[in-house]
Specification:
With 305 residues, this protein is mainly α. It contains 9 helices and 5 strands, in the order ααααββααββααβα. It binds zinc ion.
Length: 305
């Protein structure tokens, strides 16, 4: 419906776009198409290509690329191993959402990003799925410990999200040894925006048991991530090195690396207006954003940052 008035190229696969935009409202989709059309117009193109839609989707989902943000070589290296850790754990954990893209180009507040693409719109989650996602979240920190021999603040957001999920598993969804009980009534305090006031309706002893269960769930996920990476060290090494060279890897490229196959020289069609310079390293991502406005991340995403 939203692409009806926009001239789109034959290479545009709307079903792939649809899979990458679960939970988007009609207005979100209209915005996505609009951004893509604007981008195509800036490139003086008459048709909107798939690359335009991909650009637009990444911008809406992950925030604007911050090419101007200079990362030191060491930060880049840290980020490559960290994101590689997420990606490899996602690829190796049965039941986790498949990887869509992994990048070490800074976007919004994040230095890198691993995006997973759900196969379908999910409205309920199984315990297995949540545990798989927790392992993926822990993949970044586990990779830092194994490959860098140090830990960074880069995993802060992953840890926060993992802890939140684990706490909900215990307190809201009855997915722990605490049984099918709800702990802590939540009231949405509308006057305070989206802040949630939580008041405790359980004893100090129960609080300790909840903390214990939360810790157990997160630690199990960490151990799983660490074992996966430990047994696939060579693969993660290859992913990190490829990320340092290419900055972005998509699902196909990631699978080639995991299978131990070489990556093709040119993997993505270059937009007509930006011909590749021979002899230069192929750039897989647009070098410059037309806008300098801060990125707008869209809600909470299941993929770790
Ligand atoms: Zn991370």
């Amino acid at each position: 419906v939203h692409t009806r008035k926009v001239p789109i190229s034959e290479d545009v696969d709307l079903s792939v776009l649809a899979r990458g935009t679960p939970g988007f409202s009609g207005a979100d989709l209209a915005n996505l198409v609009n951004e893509a059309a604007l981008w195509a117009a800036r490139q003086s193109r008459k048709m909107v290509l798939m690359v335009d839609f991909e650009m637009s989707k990444d911008k809406v989902l992950m925030g604007v690329e911050r090419k101007s943000m200079i990362l030191s070589e060491e930060e880049k290296r840290n980020t490559a191993y960290h994101e590689g850790g997420h990606a490899l754990v996602a690829a190796m954990t049965p039941g986790a959402d498949p990887i869509h893209k992994v990048t070490i180009i800074p976007r919004g507040m994040a230095l890198g990003m691993t995006m997973q693409l759900p196969i379908d719109d999910k409205h309920t989650y199984t315990k297995d799925f949540l545990e798989a996602q927790l392992s993926v979240l822990m993949g970044g920190r586990a990779a830092e410990e194994i490959f860098l021999g140090k830990v960074t603040t880069g995993a802060g957001n992953d840890i926060e999200r993992a802890t939140d999920i684990a706490r909900q598993m215990v307190c809201d969804w009855g997915m722990s040894e605490m049984g099918p009980l709800s702990f802590g009534k939540k009231e949405e305090a509308i006057f305070l925006g989206r802040e949630i006031a939580q008041h405790r309706d359980y004893s100090e002893e129960t609080a300790i048991r909840i903390d214990h269960e939360v810790k157990k769930i997160v630690t199990a996920a960490y151990t799983n991530a660490r074992t996966t990476l430990d047994t696939n060290r060579d693969t993660l090494e290859r992913i990190a090195q490829a990320l340092l060279v290419r900055e972005v890897l998509d699902a196909t490229e990631l699978n080639l690396i995991i299978e131990g196959k070489p990556l093709p020289e040119k993997v993505r069609p270059t937009p007509p207006s930006a011909p590749a310079v021979p002899g230069k390293e192929p750039s897989l991502a647009p070098r410059r954003e037309p806008q300098t406005a801060p990125g707008f991340a869209k809600g909470e995403k299941p993929a770790p940052a």
